[in-house]
């Protein structure tokens, strides 16, 4: 293992594929794939793409071809120096309740299905169609890239989900690709995780696993050595590497809300973000969460607002189920908490679904998010929202106008709602929707369309917008924080720059702790280590 071994392009004309599966959710699959993508991409020897057959997440990103994919695959695309594309994540499931999810095939929302349609006795029709979509995207990537790093989902050993699997071994068997298995030692029981997973695989699947990666190790590696030797002897498979626990690795979360924050013990400005049961795109707030000058916290709207602390700025984020999450917020006292916050001079920002909640009502006549009907809003902005089946999905760039100044912004729209203002008011934002590319040629939908967006209340205390990624623009973030009452002139984080730094840090760690010779051999289709001369 070590930096003397360099990544190299696979031999042959056909694209080579390596799949990373995990012993459980949150074992480190997303991070390992992102690191491998950056490690091999920066060597400049191959054109590389990420791939995840099926993802279930509420954090999504807009692609260059005008669709949605999981946020993690957009991160992995950045690691490859590629723009996100719908083929990188052909099946995305966005949970709408505990038993239903919106189905997105190749970036386009199709329908909402109950869990039984995915995992129950009648799942065959969905699985068959989903596999067709997955293989269609994978075949296209094979013709365009030399190396594809694939991320599995959850664990391949979920025996109740094995039939018709498209996310793990079902895909690996279909395309005949090698697999490496990653496990999280920080949770304990890493040897049981790895051996137990292998035991629950079929003979052909077990043979497909070419090695192990142990993730998030703390301490003296020599104390682990005897266990590694036992594992290799017990399974007949090599340990490709043991990765250290990386403190404060600041990369986009795949789905779960990341509550870790930078030390802000000296910060005087307090920002709170409400967490809905179906919060979406909470990565919107990473630039605030990671800023040491901000005392940042998340507040769970599923519990009572009684006793909630005061803040300078309160943010209502987006939601996959706006009306349900709005009712939860109001029923648990958060509506009154927001009004009290405003009475004491606090500021409020609503983004996407949060913007809709601030209005007079949210109307869903077509049942886009569930049962058709109308739900009263917080009645803090004079607008009404109607949810429509046609989802707006666009990358955008434009301008924020605030306090007599203009600031550049970029981000994306993902929403089904159309909000209508009930009084004439200037919009604080104007942006241009990006050209949508399809097979290298522009589609005119969205080409050059200018959009005026958002609303500021008459008392200048409430700001609403459909723009996701608002706080990823440093100048706009600094202006919004000053609008919200922050007296200190802080340096807002540049999330694109930070992401690049962290991807390189991750790749450096992999280069140091993985057996790159063995990885190269696996990619070339050999199970034996090939010694490469260091260049």
Structural class: alpha/beta
Q: Please, what is the average pLDDT?
A: 90
Rg over CA atoms: 24 Å
Oligomeric category = single chain
* Fraction of residues in helix: 25-40%
Please report the distance between the alpha carbons of the first and last residues: 15 Å
Number of strands: 28
**Contiguous uncertain segments of 5+ residues:** 439-445, 528-535
Shape: globular
Beta-strand fraction estimate: 25-35%
- Largest sheet, strands/sense/barrel: 6 strands, parallel
Tally of DSSP helical segments: 15
Biggest sheet: strand arrangement: 2-9-1-10-11-12
List keywords for this structure.
single chain; 535 residues; alpha/beta; 6-stranded mixed β-sheet; 28 strands; 28% helix; disordered C terminus; cobalamin biosynthesis; Class_I_gatase-like; GATase_3; P-loop_NTPase; glutamine amidotransferase
Protein described:
With 535 residues, this protein is of the alpha/beta class. Helices cover 28% and strands 29% of the residues. It is built from 15 helices and 28 strands. The strands form seven sheets. The chain has a six-stranded parallel β-sheet with strand order 2-9-1-10-11-12, with helices on both faces. Helix 1 packs parallel to helix 2 (71-79). The protein is globular. Residues 439-445 and 528-535 have low confidence and may be disordered.
In short, what is this structure?
With about 525 residues, the chain is an alpha/beta fold.
Topology diagram in text:
Blueprint: E1 16-22, H1 29-41, E2 48-51, E3 54-56, E4 60-62, E5 68-70, H2 71-79, E6 91-95, E7 100-105, E8 108-114, H3 115-119, H4 124-144, E9 147-151, H5 169-175, E10 179-184, H6 190-199, H7 203-208, E11 209-217, H8 225-235, E12 239-244, E13 269-275, E14 279-280, H9 286-289, E15 294-300, E16 313-316, E17 318-319, H10 322-331, H11 334-343, E18 347-351, H12 353-357, E19 361-364, E20 373-376, E21 383-402, E22 405-421, E23 429-433, E24 436-438, E25 441-443, E26 450-453, E27 455-456, E28 462-465, H13 474-483, H14 495-513, H15 516-523
Parallel strand pairs: 1-9, 1-10, 2-9, 3-6, 10-11, 11-12, 13-15, 13-16, 16-18, 18-28, 19-21
Antiparallel strand pairs: 4-5, 6-7, 7-8, 14-17, 19-20, 21-22, 21-23, 23-26, 24-25, 27-28
Helix pairs in contact: 1-2, 1-14
